[in-house]
Design goal:
Largest sheet: none
Distance between the termini: 66 Å
Strand content: under 5%
CATH topology of one domain: Tetracycline Repressor, domain 2
Number of strands: 0
CATH architecture of one domain: Orthogonal Bundle
Radius of gyration: 21 Å
Number of helices: 10
CATH class of one domain: Mainly Alpha
Order of helices and strands: HHHHHHHHHH
Length: 206
């Protein structure tokens, strides 16, 4: 049986490697990043890195999954105790904060989408993770299909705008203003608060 201290050390090292990999992959992508650079950033040897993650692809997939986990957690925290329009606004604000405060997050998300074009493993993981994120948003906010499409489409516009270096839609940046403005469907429709459940669904009233 592995001593607890050793197990804890391995788990800590695995987290260190994952964080280092996220930074390196954000800049170089799957193809352009070396495991040597990741190991150096994490302060370990390459052989030890491969004891923690069997391949560079496995490490990239874990890094991509972590970015989606970050969004899901941010949405969960932002939407806690909120419903409908209030939840949508809170999740949108949380995503904007991620883009402003974590450049690595934005870069790695874009690397995941780029690698999905011609790498089946990355595509499958990214598609599944995106699907779970969609389900999370809908379950928290109660959005219908049209509203969810607008929410995620607007999120992609925010990704591109952030990559261009404009996240606020400043008055002298017309393209930034257009890309960050809320979709018309948001301003034309307000999400209704979900109706409370019937406390006695089996009771029939004439």
């Amino acid at each position: 049986m592995t001593p607890r201290g050793v197990r804890g050390s391995a788990e800590s090292r695995r987290e260190d490697v994952l964080l280092a990999a996220m930074t390196e992959f954000a800049g170089g992508g799957l193809v352009g990043t070396s495991t040597e650079a990741i190991a150096r950033r994490a302060g370990i040897s390459q052989p030890y890195l491969f004891r923690l993650f069997p391949t560079k692809k496995a490490l990239f997939l874990a890094s991509v999954q972590r970015t989606f986990d970050q969004v899901t957690e941010a949405f969960r925290v932002a939407g806690e105790g909120k419903l409908g329009e209030q939840a949508k606004q809170a999740m949108g604000a949380a995503y904007g904060a991620l883009l402003r405060e974590n450049r690595t997050f934005l870069q790695l998300q874009l690397q995941a989408y780029a690698s999905s074009v011609d790498d089946a493993a990355v595509r499958d993981l990214t598609r599944r993770a995106f699907g779970r994120l969609w389900e999370t948003v809908v379950s928290i906010s109660g959005m219908d299909e049209q509203m969810a499409q607008a929410f995620f489409a607007h999120g992609m516009l925010l990704n591109v705008t952030a990559a261009f270096g404009s996240t606020t839609g400043l008055p002298d940046d017309e393209l930034g203003r257009l890309m960050t403005a809320e979709p018309a469907v948001f301003t034309a429709t307000t999400l209704a608060q979900p109706a409370p459940p019937d406390p006695s669904p089996l009771t029939h009233h004439p």
